[in-house]
Specification:
The complex is a heterodimer of chains A (414) and B (281). Chain A has 414 residues and is α/β, with parallel strands linked by helices. In chain A, strands 3-4-14-9-10-13 form a six-stranded mixed β-sheet, with helices on both faces. Chain A has a four-stranded parallel β-sheet with strand order 7-6-5-8, with helices on both faces. A nine-stranded parallel β-sheet of chain B has the order 5-4-3-2-1-9-8-7-6. In chain B, helix 2 packs parallel to helix 13, helix 6 packs parallel to helix 7 and helix 11 runs parallel beside helix 13. By secondary structure, chain B is α/β, with parallel strands linked by helices. Classes of the chains: A alpha/beta (414), B alpha/beta (281). At the A-B interface, helix 1, helix 8 and strand 11 of A face helix 3, helix 5 and strand 6 of B.
């Protein structure tokens, strides 16, 4: 019996037993990890059917995370979106400041059930790392977080938060020194320490069962939002909009709406300096199917299968892969994926801050920019649901530099 | 070649090399070096030096941007090779020149995405044509390997699977049944790199792997990961059919003051290890 907050996908839908969403997904892992990944799948299946697990997780989500999260209408912001009505699903109000905690608490409970004592995780913006460090503090687990060196610099606040929570943060200096490389390093750690370590993967990518399991832990976002917006607006939205890096907050929002074919599911990818500049991380817009981090999905790569270095102002979206279920939704035409530049995202960030008093994460600002675009298409009759996946405190240094909000060294004397 | 199926790869040459070592009551020495490192030409010379120095078989690495199963040494080499612009055509040329110069079997080792992207049919055909003996694809599990094996078999290429200390007996049977050439037993749980000692895990894994039907029918079991010196090679040679050494070779090249010294160091290490696999501890 599922709780109000742990609402896994009903039986009988994708993925297949082998973890395939259509042509995407699967399990491309070294033999050394097969036993551990299979253990996660078996243990998750058991947990999913266990009312004790649902009750424990439900209790944490209600009384620790603070679920259900609010749904906030933002009329002053919506004036800039062609007058459409816009509601924000406030995952930024969860404990630790983003949607990431939903999945982390689920996997932390699973870690305990598997009898493992150490957790490792990757993080881009630091939100998954902070959530993981938080859960490890709560459950008394050893915690190591891998983070690209560039990200440790642009998200320094979150590095400090993780260390405050007792986690070891390792700055990864290989490759593009961002999220992709943090995942590589976490996999290397896992292969060596798999006996007592769980890799608490932070997005809906990776080998089966991670894409389906992480989705299940985030499904609550869309289930709640559907109930809330129907009660408030009297109907389903025209579109559900979310940012996509790996795709966890987006799949969490979208999933409950998949059967509702009148609801457009719109993912906003980071276009960085523009798709044509080559400096972006818009995997579904510009990628080709391939294998990265354990599953088949769209990937940014060259013609010989080398992964190309992504770029986004947002550390959390700066990833050359995407969860396989998004690739599937794109290919079957159920999901629409649009690209949003750094500049458009930053303008949306400032606009929401100034019109509604809510400072969003730069990741979430990509979804807000997408909403401005879609709202203008739909006009006053439009009704949009946007996932505000995280709060922007961590991004204030980037934003202050972008908008010139710091006093100059000479200060007011000038 | 007159046949439409194109050239046949050198799986039989690989089988013969391993059979010869067995007949000589020793383990085979299998060296790993990435193509394009330190340059394409330098990489070709390094592979030849390893074979001339005493390696029975070479695995040529096809560098990948995201080598998740490699430690810092091979990551560094891959990075240098990719920055130098190495292409799959260069990898195939390395295979061809090394095989032609020495007559010895040459395998390719890489991650699955480069081959998936390049095209399985195209890659197997071109590898066979270059004189390659087979491929090791450590992130392609047996369950996903059907298409690869179909084409590899068609082109006379070995499919070498990796087994790990965490592999349960039923999986060992399944994996060895699907593999050919030899089976690569990972000596420990971890990524590539030199280690102080080769643990008891390796011996236990080899014992369990030898107990599979495919191994009982003669599929050789070779051990890699962490072996770097003649003493370790001798130790592993006492219970395995082959000893695989990678990072130690790469490190010789990385540490050398110039290419001539690097090639000499590779040749020297191959010689030391070749003596090691002949003095089973």
């Amino acid at each position: 019996m599922p709780s109000d907050f742990f609402i896994p996908d009903p039986e009988g839908q994708v993925p297949s037993a082998e973890g395939y969403f259509g042509a995407f997904g699967g399990k491309f892992i070294p033999e050394a990890l097969v036993a551990a990944v299979d253990e996660v799948a078996v243990e998750y299946d058991k947990a999913k059917a266990d009312p004790v697990f649902a009750a424990e997780l439900g209790d944490l989500l209600a009384n620790y995370t603070g679920r259900p999260s609010a749904l906030t209408e933002v009329p002053r912001f919506a004036e800039h979106a062609g007058g459409a009505r816009i509601f924000l699903k406030r995952e930024d109000l969860n404990h630790t400041g983003s949607h990431k905690i939903n999945n982390v608490l689920g996997q932390a409970l699973l870690t305990r059930r598997m009898g493992k004592t150490r957790v490792i995780a990757e993080t881009g913006a630091g939100q998954h790392g902070v959530a993981t460090a938080t859960a490890c503090a709560l459950f008394g687990l050893d915690c190591t977080i891998y983070m690209g060196e560039i990200d440790t610099q642009r998200q320094a606040l979150n590095v400090a938060r993780m260390r405050m929570l007792g986690a070891e943060v390792i700055a990864v200096k290989s490759g593009s020194r961002t999220l992709k490389d943090a995942i590589n390093e976490a996999f290397r750690d896992w292969v060596a320490n798999v006996e007592h370590t769980h890799y608490l993967f932070g997005t809906v990518a990776g080998p089966h069962p991670f894409p389906a399991m992480v989705r299940d832990f985030h499904r609550v976002i869309g289930v709640e939002a559907k109930r809330q917006i129907t009660a408030r607006a009297g109907r389903l939205p025209d579109a559900a909009i979310a940012c996509v890096g790996g795709g966890s907050n987006a799949i969490g929002l979208f999933h409950a709406f998949i059967p509702d074919t009148g609801v457009r599911l719109i993912g906003c990818e980071p276009a960085g300096h523009g798709i044509e500049s080559g400096e972006h991380a818009a995997t579904l817009t510009a990628g080709e199917p391939g294998i990265l981090h354990g599953s088949r999905s769209y990937v940014l790569q060259d013609e010989e299968g080398q992964i190309t270095e992504p770029y986004s102002i947002s550390a959390g979206l700066d990833y050359p892969g995407i969860g396989p279920e998004h690739s599937y939704l794109k290919d079957v035409g159920r999901g629409e994926y649009i690209a949003v530049t750094d500049d458009d995202a930053m303008q949306a960030l400032r606009l929401l801050s100034r019109t509604e008093g809510i400072i969003p994460a730069i990741e979430s600002a990509h979804a807000l920019a997408g909403a401005l675009r879609v709202g203008r298409e739909l006009g006053e009759e439009g009704l949009l649901l946007v996932n505000l996946s995280g709060r922007g405190d961590k991004d204030m240094d980037t934003a202050a530099r972008y908008f010139g909000l710091y006093d100059s060294p000479e200060g007011d004397a000038q | 070649m007159s046949e439409n199926t194109g050239s046949s790869g050198n799986i039989e040459l690989l089988n013969a090399a391993l059979a010869t070592a067995k007949a000589e009551n020793r383990a085979a020495l299998i060296a790993y070096l990435p193509a394009g490192f330190p340059t394409v030409e330098g990489g070709i010379e390094a592979v030849k030096a390893a074979l001339d120095g005493g390696a029975d078989v070479v695995e040529v690495g096809l560098p990948h941007s995201d080598p998740v199963l490699d430690g810092p040494v091979i990551q560094t080499a891959d990075d240098i090779a990719l920055r130098g612009g190495v292409r799959i055509a260069d990898v195939l040329r390395t295979v061809r020149e090394a095989h032609t110069a020495t007559g010895k079997p040459v395998l390719v080792m890489t991650y699955w995405n480069p081959i998936d992207r390049y095209g399985v049919e195209r890659f197997t055909a071109e590898l066979a044509e270059a004189g390659g003996a087979g491929c090791i694809l450590p992130d392609l599990p047996v369950e996903e390997s059907g298409l690869w094996r179909e084409h590899a078999e068609k082109h006379g290429l070995a499919t070498v699977f990796v087994v790990a200390p965490s592999s349960r007996d039923a999986r060992l049977a399944k994996i060895t049944e699907a593999g050919s050439g030899f089976v690569y037993a990972a000596s420990l749980m971890g990524v590539t790199g030199t280690r102080e000692s080769v643990g008891a895990q390796a011996q236990d894994l080899v014992r369990r792997t030898r107990d599979t039907p495919a191994a009982r029918r003669g599929l050789p079991v070779c051990v890699g990961l962490g072996v770097s010196n003649p003493e370790q090679a001798a130790e592993v040679a006492s219970f395995a059919d082959g000893v695989i050494v990678g990072s130690a070779f790469v490190k010789r090249l990385l540490d050398a003051p110039d290419q001539t010294a690097g090639l000499a160091a590779v040749r020297e290490l191959a010689g030391e290890l070749a003596r090691g696999v002949r003095s089973r501890a």
